[in-house]
Amino acid sequence: MTPARPARPGRRPRRFDRIPIWFTGSLLGIALLMIVGLLGLIMARGLGTFWPWPLWEVSVADGTRYLGLVHRTELIPQPAERSESPARRTLYRIGNRDVYGLDFVWVDDAQITHRTRPTEAVVLERLEWGPFYGFVQSVRTPIQAVQDDPARRWETLRRELPPARRRARAIRYIERRVVGNINTAMERHRLALRRLELRHALANPLGQAQQRRHEAAIADLNARYARVAADLRAKRQEDAQSRAVFASIDGHVIDLPMSAIVRVYRPNRLSVPGRVGVYLDRLREFVFDPPREANSEGGVAPAIFGTVMMTLLMSLVVVPLGILAALYLHEYARQGWLVSSVRIAVNNLAGVPSIVFGVFGLGFFCYFLGGTIDHLWFPERLPTPTFGGGGILWASLTLALLTVPVVIVATEEALAAVPNGLREASLACGATKFQTIWRVVLPSAVPGVLTGTILAMARGAGEVAPLMITGVVKLAPDLPIDQVAPFLHLERKFMHLGFHIYDVGFQSPNVEASKAMVYMTTLLLLGVVVCLNLAAMQIRGRLRAKLGGGDV
């Protein structure tokens, strides 16, 4: 055991030497409690969104009746000179935006004369206009119309909903896949004709033959589109024959096809397993379905896909670039004022506001590089840009520039932690410098390099400002990957969970109804970042155990 170094005579202890360990431990505990508390708040506000709460029928002293969910309760502010106990008011979500023009209403608890939970009240989740709270009035099918018995109306509605959903999926398949493929093929032939025109090839016999071939293909596609459109009209007419009529608490009636119903249930008659089933189904919809109603309802599947794909593309670019830069600075460059200046510049890049990187990415990647690609390889598409606008490729490259200082610094620290004796032993055995770096230094520094990658992924996945001007959009129905060649479309715009939070929280026309979606999307973004980091940490741990680089 090495003896402690004796203090020099006359040396006064530093101020920070007297800080007790319990003080620093307490600060760490407080920080951890704040993080756990924030996560708990997000989970409580987010996960409770999808629970099927009961519907309340409320009668007010002026004769008005409401049917809705209890959103929150608060105290009514009272003047300081009044001594009576403070009154309370409740915010009810009454839905039916197409009927009332608003989703929420405040009701003073003192004005309530009657409050009950009607057993036949239903929650109707539909494709448009948000939820509807009311009662089933009638159900019409091609073979019958049920109006008299509430139990029969409900059973008929539940029985007819699965076929209606299958018809809706068939119609969406024709609209998106079949019609979409026809439009894609027609666009490809149209661009080929435009390409022949730009190359002045229509004057020679070969160009004219190609023109006739493309025009014949377009005519065949138009005939096929006419047949598909007729089939689509027939399916829509068949779908319109199955309808349901609902009435609100004050008698307003809506009539809509069953295919427009996303979900319908009677919350006041649900058992605990039934509530759990509705909750899990709504949670599944949030994770795997696309959004609807200005992103305030539905799911966030395209945003999850865009976030993960953008983060992976950014990592594929930033890791080689950061490693090569760090290798040159640490292993090859002659140390001096120039290398020191470069290191200072790299460290300063980490403090540049992210929006500056976004403006650079817009100017260099989107306008200059993308515009050049369009003029060289896609002139027939102009003036509509292909790569000259925002896209997931340019957004990933912009974030790669934003996070490359993190990888460079972490990689340099990992390379500096490799003992020089390993380098000298490898060189003494006759290995070249490149062989020494490739087979000795880099394997020992891989865990540290992956640490920098983890930090870069965590920062890049949460950035929003650069993405707003380099490719992210409010709604992107077409994913960057599909069955159309070349299958990976890096020029397409995409959705991102971070931008989705901003859009729903600050740009939604119905802010109060969107608060729960903000918490749930935040929780999902944290989960995506944690999963990506855990995967990288698992790889780092295995490499550390395999290579024996536990201290690097």
- The averaged pLDDT comes out at 86
Provide the β-strand percentage band: 5-15%
Oligomer: single chain
Instruction: Give the CA-based shape.
Output: flat
Descriptive terms for the model:
single chain; 552 residues; alpha+beta; MetI-like fold; 3 domains; 6-stranded antiparallel β-sheet; 5-stranded antiparallel β-sheet; 12% strand; flat
Please describe what this structure looks like.
The chain is α+β, with helices and mostly antiparallel strands and 552 residues long. The chain has 3 domains: 46-135 and 244-288, no CATH class; 142-241; 301-547, MetI-like (MetI-like fold, Orthogonal Bundle), CATH 1.10.3720.10. It is built from 13 helices and 13 strands. The chain has helices at 21-47, 97-100, 150-198, 205-240, 272-288, 301-332, 337-349, 354-377, 392-417, 420-428, 433-462, 497-506, 511-547, and strands spanning 56-60, 65-75, 88-93, 104-108, 112-116, 122-126, 132-140, 145-146, 243-247, 253-257, 261-265, 291-292, 297-298. The strands form 3 sheets. Strands 6, 7, 8, 9, 10 and 11 form a 6-stranded antiparallel β-sheet that branches. Strands 4-3-2-1-5 form a 5-stranded antiparallel β-sheet, with no helix packed on it. Helix 6 packs across helix 9 (392-417), helix 6 (301-332) runs antiparallel to helix 11 (433-462) and helix 11 (433-462) runs antiparallel to helix 13 (511-547). It is flat. 27% of the residues are buried. The mean pLDDT is 86.
Please provide a brief summary of the model.
By secondary structure, the protein is of the alpha+beta class. Helix content is 57%, strand content 12%.
